[in-house]
Automatic annotation (TrEMBL):
Residues 4-132 form the EamA domain. The keyword Hydrolase does not apply. Keywords: Membrane, Transmembrane, Transmembrane helix. One of its GO terms (cellular component) is membrane. The chain crosses the membrane at residues 28-47, 59-82, 102-132, 144-162, 174-193, 205-225, 237-258, 265-283. This is EamA family transporter. It comes from Novilysobacter ciconiae. Pfam families: EamA. The lineage of its organism: Bacteria, Pseudomonadati, Pseudomonadota, Gammaproteobacteria, Lysobacterales.
């Protein structure tokens, strides 16, 4: 279970780093760029994905390209959500993206819609509404629900795209390797353009923060993969512990460390989110 704990810690620390970035005057776009360089290198060295399997991707190369564009775009939105709505609500919104993935599993991938999963889905949808609700003390005039909603939908889209590629016979790690490289190339091109135009200068602080972000982001992935390998007979336990762990630790850090305000609806939503994740994880497989 220590692998799950490390994955949870890395996930929450990603949000913490994005939270403090504006205070340290770090360029988040540059951080995201170097993050994907680290992720691509570590994925190749530690996970050693079978890139030969990419030949089976066939007509799904457009999906890999979509991942290369979506991942960094979503990372930038995630940073905006953490900055505007806080770690608590952003981490819950990210984890509840599994609801839309579940809808896709029912409607696109032919999975059986069991009663337990449908109850979990219904509770989760109520939780989403509660998370989007703005605390009264959070200030006025900001549509903070927009980045939260984008995070919710965006991470579900990533999951669906990975499943589409997997259907072609391409392992998820090989797909992620390609997506990381594409994301870095696209983001690096953008940073060079920004630097050339004088709109943003490359700086060492953002570079160093980006390397740390990449270590944490990849750590979240690799520890989660290793946890599944260590507990091959208990995928539901790993799935539930990971998602619930991020919700709980993210809430504790957001409230205790950053004094983020939460409304009664937000707190109810967090409880419903935990219950929904547990129901979906432990529902009988059809």
């Amino acid at each position: 279970m220590h692998l799950i704990g490390l994955s949870v810690l890395c996930s929450v620390l990603v949000s913490v780093l994005l939270k403090i970035a504006p205070r340290k005057r770090l360029d988040v776009a540059q951080m995201v760029t170097w993050n994907y360089l680290v992720a691509a290198v570590l994925c190749a060295l530690l996970l050693r994905p079978d890139l030969g399997s990419l030949r089976s991707a066939g007509g799904h190369w457009w999906v890999l390209l979509g991942l290369g564009v979506l991942l960094p775009s979503l990372f930038l939105v995630l940073a905006s959500a953490v900055r505007q709505a806080g770690i608590v609500r952003t981490d819950v919104a990210q984890r509840l993206s599994l609801l839309l993935s579940l809808v896709a599993a029912f409607t696109v991938f032919g999975e059986t819609a069991s009663v337990v999963k449908l109850v979990g889905l219904a509770l989760g949808m109520v939780a989403v509404a509660g998370i989007l609700a703005r605390p009264a003390s959070a200030g006025n005039g900001r549509m903070v629900w927009m980045p939260l909603l984008t995070v919710w939908v965006g991470f579900a889209c990533v999951d669906v795209l990975l499943k589409l590629v997997a259907q072609s016979g391409t392992p998820s790690m090989a797909s992620l390797q390609v997506a990381f490289v594409l994301a870095f190339v696209l983001m690096a091109g953008w940073q060079v353009t920004r630097h050339a135009r004088g709109t943003a200068r490359l700086d060492r602080s953002s570079f160093a923060a980006g390397l740390l972000l990449g270590l944490l982001n990849f750590g979240n992935i690799v520890f989660y993969v290793r946890a599944h390998q260590a507990l091959p007979e208990s995928p539901a336990v790993v799935f539930a512990a990971m998602n619930i762990g991020v919700v709980v630790l993210g809430t504790l850090v957001g409230v205790a460390v950053f004094r983020e305000p939460t409304s009664r609806w937000n707190r109810l939503a967090i409880a419903l989110a935990i219950l929904a994740i547990a129901l979906i994880a432990y529902a009988p497989r059809g």
